[in-house]
Automatic annotation (TrEMBL):
Signal peptide: none annotated. GO terms for molecular function: DNA binding; zinc ion binding. Pfam families: Fungal_trans. Residues 49-123 form the Xylanolytic transcriptional activator regulatory domain. Residues 110-126 have a biased composition (Basic and acidic residues). This is Xylanolytic transcriptional activator regulatory domain-containing protein. It is found in: Nucleus. InterPro entries: Sec_Metabolite_Reg, XnlR_reg_dom. Its main location: nucleus. It comes from Fusarium oligoseptatum.
Amino acid sequence: MPKILAYRGKVVQCLIQAQFAKGGPDIMETLVHYIVIENNLNKDSNVRVWLLMGNIVQIAIRMGYHRDPQHFKSLSPYQGEMRRRMWAMVYSLDTGFATQMGLPSSIKHSLSDTRPPRNLQNHDFDASSTELPPARSIDELTSSTVIIAKFHIARINFYMHYQRARILINWKFLGTSKDPADSDQSWSIVIEAALEILQLQHLMAEESEVSDASRPTVSHVFSSSAAETNCHLNS
């Protein structure tokens, strides 16, 4: 533990000397590194970690991570893909900490258009690459598979919260409206949202049952559910 605390102190010193609030090279990587350390040092959920995550999100947005790298012509394919990986990490951490605390996430989902990173090994491309290679099969475990999985799970989790909100908003109108048509519409929305949640929960439960520890079973989540979720979120 003393070594971990000393290491955390050095990370903080580096961030302060680099004036992390202004952004810059390696700032996001160091901030994510720091918040993971802080979270692991806490035995239970801590509101300070959630607050810190909010600051990290704001710095990431200020540095443009919420926009897909295709909008920035000055970025190389390598830089763009690494930014996608970093945003996926920030996105999943923000959603995870918010869910853990029962508080809102800091990322405004409608403001981000950053695509998920490709399923590639680190040695598949480098700083000299003029274009990214095709993504490997999602059934193949790579350096970015876990990041991609967490990113899609975070988006699905957000969509389920959205459906819960639809249920709560319409619940109070069930059977109380003087106009039967309004009550019927509320019932329809509640049932539709509940079925959406059950479908996603069932899918997540199925994909969590790993029959072969050497092979990830996430292809269905990526190919169907995530695509459907993106469609709903963008509609």
